[in-house]
Structures are given as structure tokens and as C-alpha cells.
UniProtKB/TrEMBL annotation:
<dbReference type="InterPro" id="IPR013108">
    <property type="entry name" value="Amidohydro_3"/>
</dbReference>
<protein>
    <submittedName>
        <fullName>N-substituted formamide deformylase</fullName>
        <ecNumber>3.5.1.91</ecNumber>
    </submittedName>
</protein>
<dbReference type="GO" id="GO:0016810">
    <property type="term" value="F:hydrolase activity, acting on carbon-nitrogen (but not peptide) bonds"/>
</dbReference>
<dbReference type="InterPro" id="IPR033932">
    <property type="entry name" value="YtcJ-like"/>
</dbReference>
<keyword id="KW-0378">Hydrolase</keyword>
<feature type="domain" description="Amidohydrolase 3">
    <location>
        <begin position="50"/>
        <end position="462"/>
    </location>
</feature>
<dbReference type="InterPro" id="IPR032466">
    <property type="entry name" value="Metal_Hydrolase"/>
</dbReference>
<dbReference type="InterPro" id="IPR011059">
    <property type="entry name" value="Metal-dep_hydrolase_composite"/>
</dbReference>
<dbReference type="Pfam" id="PF07969">
    <property type="entry name" value="Amidohydro_3"/>
</dbReference>
Amino acid sequence: MLLIADVWTMTEVGRAQAVYLEGDRIADVGLEHDLSARYPRAKKSRFERITPGLHDAHTHPLGWGEQLERLDLSGVHDPREVARRVAERARSLPPGTWIRGAGYLFDHYPHRSILDELVPDHPVFVRSRDLHSGWANTRALELAGVSRDSADPEGGAIVRDGVGEPTGYLLETAQGYIQRILPPGTVADLERGLRDLARRGYTATHHMGWCPLEYAEELARSGRLPLRLWWAMDKDNWQGVKPGWRGDSLEVAAVKFFADGALGSRTAWMIEPYPDGTHGIVLDPLEFIREQGEAVLRAGFGVVTHAIGTQAVRGLLEVYEQLAPLVSPARPLRMEHAQHVRDEELPRFKGLPLALSMQPIHALEDADLVRHHLPGKEHEAFRLRDLWNTGLPLAFGSDAPVALPDVLAGIQASLHNPLNPTQSLNEAETLWAFTRGAALAAGWLEHGLIRPDAPADLTLWEGGKPVGRVFRGEVELG
């Protein structure tokens, strides 16, 4: 098969005009005239642009599959509007049915009475866009056994009123009170999430937790994985698991830790306090990450750590400096998000065996939150250009279901940084981070390139957007 387009190879060749495929590999790359003469009987297809297959370098595909079936609260900032939408959903459901959703962003922690007023007979649990906090009504708290006597769990907090009663708002691990009584996600949810990513033109995604490995292994065994899946284990269940490939589509590669929470929930761990005097929440202590990280690396896994706030980033750099001698090229350290970085920390990134996994799409909604929660610190957020200049590979993604896995929105946010235009990247750099940079972050050295003998995983573009893909040498359109 001969594909003709403006071919962005992500190699030293730069741009080409045609790609010839044989089976599931790229056989030849070059000028249209040369390849047409070399392969005169090949079936030809034309496209506007071809890139290496897109990766979403940070997703929770089980959660994304679940969210596709739930109440979408994206873009909602008023708690009363959330309650109204929940009440609208409740009218079509029998009393006692759980109502779940996610996607809102609030600038304060609302009270359960707002939900109770409109939805008294259905247990409700809706989560913030970043998934680091959740809001429950009284019925849900009662079912979960949450009262004024309930203790704050390690790494979380039950928000309380002036007399110590739970307000219904739960931060970080305190959400576990509700989650432990909810039905778990299923293999079907995971498959739904992965198929949606494939439909959007992605050929790979990097799983970042909150799903049993057995679900992915079942899909791999039955040949139902619709893209290549790089898998990070949760920190609580990696022991006894063997790293490596399950077939040729699923690699169990790393273990994930959390240094802090997220900006939208005011749980990102900051050096300077938020306006209310708090500094965020530490989830996994740095010494725990160092000790466990050493064990993880010696077991053949990579180390992945979520770090959003300035203190989380600073502390994690110290940990990674200590872990660096144990790192192999196939398992680079990863810092997920790196969203708020002080000037003082920038020189410390250079030279580390580290990939930076970032989500430009988050800047579209977080820009106002940065201005609200961190006035005067806008220059520390979403430093794409400064981090690109460290020479470390950047890997871009969405964090779905935290944000839509919309590559065009991610590209636009990278091209036009809404907080600081000088931190924008150009188109070639942005697409590199969605392809080759993401492959390097995964340790997949032969991926993210268009060159002979590379896997035939490509994304096909028309009208400036993905319209299909080549996966394992097979063209999929629409």
C-alpha cells in the first residue's frame, strides 16, 4: 500500500511525500515520484498529512469509558447548575439509584444542602474535573457511613462546617468513603474507553492507574485491544506482577505514585500558600516514593509520579536525582503534569533520565483557576517552552476523563498558551510531543517515527484534523 501526503517523519529526514507499507511495517519512505516508480502495482491513497501514530500519553481509559456513560459536567462552575443537571437526570431514574458524574470546576467547596434540596431521594456523587475531589449529598453520605465522627484518611480530608459536620465535600483519599460502596468498573468500560481513543485517531495510550491489570490482559488475550497500551500499575498492587509485554499490544511497564493533588481542588502541594493559607495535600510522602521507587526500579519497572504543585515538583526532582543511577534507557523516569515550576527548579531538570508528561489541554480551563488561586504566579504554570528547552522529551496527552482526549484542543493550547504566549510551542514541536516524545517516554524506541522497518502505526489527517489511522498496517477511516 502506498500512502501519499505531506509526511511528517519525526526523523532527521524531516518531511517526505509518500510511505510504502508492507504488512504491519513501514517498508519505504520518500518522494512520491520515486516510490510510485518503485512500486507501480501498489494501491494508492492520498491524504493531506500523515504523522506517526498519535499517543495520548496520560489517560485513565477505564474511567474514560465509564464517563462516556455518565453525567457530563464539563465546563460547569456553579454548584447550583450541577444540582440542576443532577435533578434532571434523577427524574428518569427510580428513587435510590446512584447518580454519578464528573467534570465541574468550582472556586469554593459547596455544601450538600444544595444537592439535597433538588435530589433528596437518590444518592449522588459527582467529581471535580481533576478527580481529586468529589461532592456527595446526604443520602450518599448516609449509605457510606460518613458522619462527624468519621476520621480524615491519610492523604485526604472531609470538608466540615463550623460545628464539625461533613459538608458533603471530600478531598483526595476521602473520596474512598463513597467509592468503596460503588460498583467497580468493568472490562466493557475499559474497552469502551480504548475504542473511543482509537476512533479519534490515536494508535497508543499510556494508562495511568485506577484499573485492574486483569481487564487489560483479558482484552490482550482475546485480541480486542484497539491500540497499543503502555501500562502503569497502581503503587499498592505491583508486587508479584512481572513487568514486560503481554502479546504485542500491552506492555506492563511502570508503577505510579502521587506526590500531591490538583489545582482545581486546591490540593496541589505548593511552596507558597493559596489565598486561604493552605499549601495543598501530600499524598505519597517523598521518602516513600524514594524507597518504593528504588524497589520498583530493581524489579524492572519504571517509576511514574504525579507532581503538579511547586513543592511537589521540587521534592520529586530531589527524589529522582537519587534514583537516576538505577534507571535504564528503556524505563525512563516520568514526571506527570509538571504543571507549576519555579525558576529555581528549571536547571535541575537537565541531564536527568526523565520524560515530562504534560497536558496542554488543561491550560484551557485551568488558566482562570491559576489566576484565582495563585495570583502573581501565573508565569510558573504550564511552562511548555521552558521545559522543552531542558532537552528532555515532552510527551503530551489529555488525562482523560479529566479532560476530553481531544488532540486538536491540546494542539491549540500548546500553540497558543492561554496564560503566557511566550511558553507556546510551534506545530512541529507539538506534534513531536504527541508522537515521538510520547514514544520515548514509553521507552518504545522504534515507535513515533516514519522510517523503514518502523511499525505501521500512523495517523491520517484531512482539513487539519485526524480522519483515520493506520494500525498494524490496516487503514481505518471515519
